[in-house]
């Protein structure tokens, strides 16, 4: 396959998790830009909808989300704590999927937000995502609301290890998984035979012998209080809130909208389809973030096209 064909194929693969949507209207882009012009201290909240354009599926999108395409359900916090079988299944799938997940690159929306930060157009980014794509794009002021998949922690002590280093440990303990890449299905999900999961070896904490878990807030767990307080302070010191690519069905994200409105600050939302906070938004644009955000304040391209 020639380079051009390979690039087009890769682009199509990245877009397979983006739900159906209508093109963004130029009037909507202009309206959002006018909204942001007088708010250089805006707080940005991002969700899974901005990472679908990088090839990471979300849970809820109609037809293309994980709920629609597979029988895969998100891990529950208490199940992970109580069951060695649940931990084995989680870490086996995570081990197989890690090379693909960790090699995912930021898209135009991530890069645009990093540019806005450099240009002092936004205060900070709070993300519900655990993919580190904002950091890869160059954003500095990022709060990871639900933690990060790039760090593994002990549940009993303060031990931490980089996820890449942990991958090497898992690989050495599970040589039977040398054919693991063949287990990845074309839709990006992971198919692992039960006997592999049963025999998967998970190391314990080298400091205290405790169980290891990614530094992610699983469903049923709580966001750390200090993190919530930090975000509340950011809302208080902001000009308002810009929500990108989130349905806001998870309360930890919706709470930030409620805090913003309680302070009588404005809210703008860009998301394909409805969100839980549409009735609270001053501006709601139903469009793909990549069709809107990179075009904001992009005066060089505007000048070239005029």
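^ structure tokens above, recovered residues below v
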């Amino acid at each position: 396959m020639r380079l051009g064909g390979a690039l087009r194929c890769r682009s199509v693969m990245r877009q397979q998790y983006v739900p159906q949507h209508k093109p963004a209207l130029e009037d909507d882009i202009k309206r959002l830009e006018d909204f942001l012009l007088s708010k250089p201290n805006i707080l940005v909240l991002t969700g899974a909808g901005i990472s679908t354009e990088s090839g990471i599926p979300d849970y809820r999108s109609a037809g293309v989300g994980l709920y629609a395409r597979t029988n895969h359900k998100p891990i529950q916090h208490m199940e992970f704590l109580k069951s060695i079988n649940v931990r084995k299944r989680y870490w086996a799938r995570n081990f197989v999927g890690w090379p693909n997940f960790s090699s995912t690159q930021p898209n135009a929306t991530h890069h645009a937000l990093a540019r806005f930060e450099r240009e002092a157009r936004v205060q900070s980014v709070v993300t519900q995502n655990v993919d580190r794509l904002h950091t890869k794009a160059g954003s500095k002021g990022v709060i990871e609301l639900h933690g990060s998949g790039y760090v593994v922690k002990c549940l009993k002590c303060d031990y931490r290890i980089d996820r890449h280093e942990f991958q090497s440990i898992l690989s050495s303990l599970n040589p039977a998984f040398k054919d693991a890449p063949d287990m990845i299905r074309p839709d990006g999900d992971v198919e692992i035979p039960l006997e592999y999961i049963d025999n998967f070896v998970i190391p314990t904490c080298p400091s205290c012998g405790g169980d290891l878990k990614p530094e992610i807030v699983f469903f049923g767990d709580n966001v750390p209080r200090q993190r919530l307080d930090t975000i509340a302070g950011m809302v208080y010191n902001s000009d308002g809130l810009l929500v990108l690519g989130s349905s806001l069905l998870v309360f930890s994200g919706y709470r930030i909208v409620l805090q913003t409105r309680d302070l009588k600050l404005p809210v703008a939302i860009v998301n394909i389809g409805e969100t839980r906070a549409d009735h609270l938004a001053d501006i709601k644009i139903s469009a793909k973030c990549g069709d809107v955000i990179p075009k904001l304040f992009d005066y060089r391209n505007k000048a070239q096209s005029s």
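Residues 84-102 form the longest helix (19 residues).
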